[in-house]
Design brief:
By secondary structure, the protein is of the alpha/beta class. The protein folds into two domains: 101 residues, no CATH class; 188 residues, Beta Barrel (OB fold (Dihydrolipoamide Acetyltransferase, E2P)). Helices cover 34% and strands 21% of the residues. It contains eight helices and ten strands. The strands form three sheets. Strands 5-6-7-9-8 form a five-stranded mixed beta barrel. β4, α8 and β5 form a beta-alpha-beta unit. α1 packs antiparallel against α2 and α1 runs parallel beside α3.
């Protein structure tokens, strides 16, 4: 019998991956890295890594044997020479383990937004022609729909039926004041950006972190949120350009809650909704700062 230190090292790697994933779930840090709907999958991955670790334990102590002529020349019994290529492979595997244990998960902020081209994202999201400019005194339509979506059905949902989705958009069209709560944010955001002229003059309330760019006037900033589809690698900026006289007094990444009036402006060749801020207060960063998609499915 002999001990294969390389096989033991592989077992340590598998155990480390399992422990790292379980630790992220235990501390809640996993929410800073992935869409919560994939939480169960990451737990399954942690369990699989642990099972593989147990299997790997059986390979640490092996009987001495000679390779027969039928053994594949590419098969690694754990006693082949340690090459530069193998060292590189192990390094690539070890780095995420070390960063997972040693570096705390960070919430994405303005620095990442700048690298991703935050304002460019916003202008790309709104390249459609909004038609003729509509006066901010456009009357608000009321009482034209027979049914309203039940807020209890929408709150916290990760999916909804297509008819619920349409009802929620119609309900938005009736609102004199729009509250951009996290559970409705993306639906409202898409609707407002696709039909900017329909919402001019509406009051709006939302929160987010402050993002500034060199192209902005001194009184301009973006009230921003990060939208995550799967994990932070695919994070995109969503938010509203804002007109705020006190913008210079607020630092980037400061979380604020604002109330203002929706208007429209042209920026970098695109028509964007802009919020003329009337009230604001600095707030703590939310426990769940990211926004996530809601899957809309048809019942037909």
């Amino acid at each position: 019998m002999k001990i294969s230190y390389r096989q033991a090292f592989k077992a340590c790697i598998l155990l480390s991956f399992s422990a790292m994933l379980f630790s992220l779930h235990w501390t809640g840090e996993i929410k800073k890295l992935i869409n919560p709907k994939y939480g169960n999958l990451s737990i399954v991955a942690a369990v699989l890594f642990f099972i593989l670790f147990l299997v790997q334990l059986t390979r640490i102590a092996e009987k001495k044997h000679h390779h027969d002529k039928h053994c594949c020349s590419t098969h690694d019994h754990g006693n082949t020479s340690f090459t530069t290529r193998k060292a590189l492979s192990y390094t690539i595997i070890i780095i995420p383990i070390l960063t997972g244990f040693l570096l705390p998960a960070q919430i994405l902020g303005s620095t990442i937004a700048d690298k991703k081209g935050g304002v460019m994202m916003l202008t790309k999201q709104q390249q459609a022609n909004i038609g003729d400019y509509v006066s901010s005194n456009k009357p608000i339509v009321e009482n034209i729909y027979d049914h309203e979506p039940d807020p209890a059905l929408i709150e916290g949902r990760k999916e909804m039926q297509e008819n619920e989705y349409e009802l929620l958009k119609k309900e938005l069209f009736k609102k004199a004041k729009i509250n951009m709560a996290a559970e409705d944010y993306i639906i409202y955001y898409d609707e407002i950006n696709n039909n900017v002229s329909e919402y001019i003059g509406r009051r709006i309330q939302l929160n987010g972190f402050i993002l500034k760019e060199e192209e902005f006037a001194q009184n301009q900033m973006v009230i921003s949120r990060f939208f995550i589809t799967h994990c932070i690698a695919d994070a995109n900026i969503v938010g509203f350009l804002s007109d705020f006289p006190e913008a210079t007094s607020l630092a980037e990444d400061t979380w604020v809650e604002v109330i203002g009036t929706l208007d429209i402006t042209e920026f970098d060749g695109a028509y964007l909704p802009i919020i003329k801020i009337e009230q604001w207060v600095e707030i703590q960063e939310p426990e769940t700062p990211y926004l996530y998609p809601i899957d809309v499915y048809s019942t037909s």
